[in-house]
């Protein structure tokens, strides 16, 4: 066998082994990631067909593939150098030192071969096939792994010793929300998720942790009718308010007796509309505790074909109501129909002097973000966060100030106080979760329009209110920071 023929045969063999090892190594490096369907097929075929036949543990196979790949690369480099050496020293009388151009040519050829067989070919196999082809050469792969078993065992031993020498990781586990962010980012990087779908996926995942209290329509906003209302009056009420289902009560809202359906009025003759009452056509009402998981409630309402449930608190009083639409809005956001009024006023309105006009139902957890731009030198957030957007900047500030990671999303951490005299402090000794509730709690009553309360650097002026709740509030800082 001539040297040239032997070199060619050895080169082909090493390149085939390199491509095979690189493919297997790629499989194990991609396991556990978000992958497109064609990529996942390779991993599924490997786990289902090939891996059991190798009769080695998963960690051992992964390490063997990595070792085989590195050995193949080293052997290729050695073979290339040997060929260059023998080419210039094969005939003693013509022996000479390789020229620079010959060395560069050999290096270029080696790099090109590595790019093709270590990168390009494994990628093509991984993306254009389902991975079933490798099952036919499992015996060859098993033989290669057993041949390098001594090297694999030695390397595994060294890695184990190195792991023992490493200091024990005492850091706490990631907060679930941070783990979720990592998964969503991985999905975007792998092309599985579009950026626009990220919040939808987050909402769907967090949906399972929410309770009815978080998504229900609160009691003050419930539209209901007494059971003594005549059907003619009920028809006029339905036409005016455009509701298809209305709770019916006897005496007070704490005694809901049923649900009045608008389409049931079609079955009533016009001559009976003045003599019959809503209580006579109402349907039974279903109740749910305010602490029930919304995911469980959604399944129940789908199974029982219900569209509305009355929410009760721990004392049995009516706390609100929840509909299928409320549950779906917890995932996809606001769902408006042709009867809904525009809700632009629900968004904060910034005034020239830096104050904001907000609704009484504005969440305290969003209050700090309103004034984030006024604390730009001290805080990273530069804009108010949208609904459902993770407050990463706020969480990072809390971590930098020594706050615990697990509590970064809790309301009490949003109310923390800092030594920074320009930082916005939120009241921390109140139970309210909305701005209207906070104003009422501070004042001790439902303030009238024009009343002002101040607390922890906040000036809260009531703009509109009823005898039951606060509708509009102007929020400003008593001592705005000087950023000049």
TrEMBL record:
Residues 216-276, 281-341 form the CBS domain. The keyword Cell wall biogenesis/degradation does not apply. GO terms for cellular component: plasma membrane. The chain crosses the membrane at residues 6-24, 143-165. Keywords: CBS domain, Membrane, Repeat, Transmembrane, Transmembrane helix. It is a multi-pass membrane protein. PANTHER family: HEMOLYSIN-RELATED, UPF0053 PROTEIN SLL0260. This is Hemolysin family protein.
């Amino acid at each position: 066998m001539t040297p040239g023929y032997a070199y060619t045969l050895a080169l082909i063999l090493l390149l085939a082994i390199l491509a095979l090892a690189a493919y297997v190594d790629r499989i194990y490096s991609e396991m556990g990631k978000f992958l497109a369907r064609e990529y996942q097929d390779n991993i599924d075929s490997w786990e289902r067909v090939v891996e059991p036949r190798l009769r080695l543990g998963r960690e051992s196979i992964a390490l063997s593939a990595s070792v085989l790949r590195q050995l193949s690369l080293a052997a290729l480099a050695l073979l290339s150098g040997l060929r260059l050496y023998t080419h210039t020293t094969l005939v003693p009388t013509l022996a000479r030192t390789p020229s620079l151009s010959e060395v560069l040519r050999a290096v270029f050829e080696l790099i090109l071969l590595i790019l093709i067989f270590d990168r390009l070919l494994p990628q093509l196999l991984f993306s254009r096939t389902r991975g079933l082809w490798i099952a036919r050469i499992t015996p060859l792969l098993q033989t290669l792994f057993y041949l390098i078993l001594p090297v694999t065992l030695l390397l595994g031993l060294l890695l184990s010793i190195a792991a023992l020498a490493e200091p024990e990781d005492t850091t706490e586990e990631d907060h679930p929300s941070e783990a979720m962010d990592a998964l969503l980012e991985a999905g975007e990087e792998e092309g599985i998720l579009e950026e626009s779908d990220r919040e939808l996926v987050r909402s769907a995942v967090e949906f399972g942790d929410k309770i009815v209290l978080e998504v229900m329509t609160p009691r003050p906003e419930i539209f209901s009718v007494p059971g003594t209302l005549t059907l003619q009056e009920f028809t006029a009420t339905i036409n005016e308010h455009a509701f298809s289902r209305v709770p019916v009560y006897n005496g007070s809202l704490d005694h809901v007796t049923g649900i009045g359906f608008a389409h049931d009025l079609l079955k009533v003759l016009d001559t009976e509309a003045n003599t019959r009452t809503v209580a006579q056509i109402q349907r039974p009402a279903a109740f749910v505790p305010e602490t029930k998981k919304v995911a469980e409630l959604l399944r129940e309402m789908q199974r029982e074909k219900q569209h509305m449930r009355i929410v009760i608190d721990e004392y049995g009083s009516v706390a609100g109501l929840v509909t299928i639409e409320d549950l779906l809005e917890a995932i996809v956001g606001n769902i408006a129909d042709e009867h809904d009024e525009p809700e632009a006023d629900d968004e904060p309105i910034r005034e020239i002097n830096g104050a904001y006009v907000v609704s009484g139902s504005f969440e305290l957890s969003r209050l700090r973000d309103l004034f984030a731009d006024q604390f730009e030198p001290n805080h990273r957030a530069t804009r108010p966060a949208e609904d459902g957007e993770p407050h990463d900047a706020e969480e990072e500030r809390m971590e930098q100030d020594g706050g615990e990671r697990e509590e970064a999303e809790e309301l009490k951490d949003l109310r923390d106080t800092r030594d920074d005299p320009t930082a916005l402090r939120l009241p921390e000794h109140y139970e309210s979760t909305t701005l209207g509730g906070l104003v009422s709690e501070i004042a001790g009553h439902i303030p009238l329009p024009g009343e002002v309360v101040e607390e922890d650097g906040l000036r809260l002026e009531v703009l509109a209110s009823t005898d039951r709740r606060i509708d509009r509030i102007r929020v400003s800082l008593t001592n705005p920071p000087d950023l000049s």
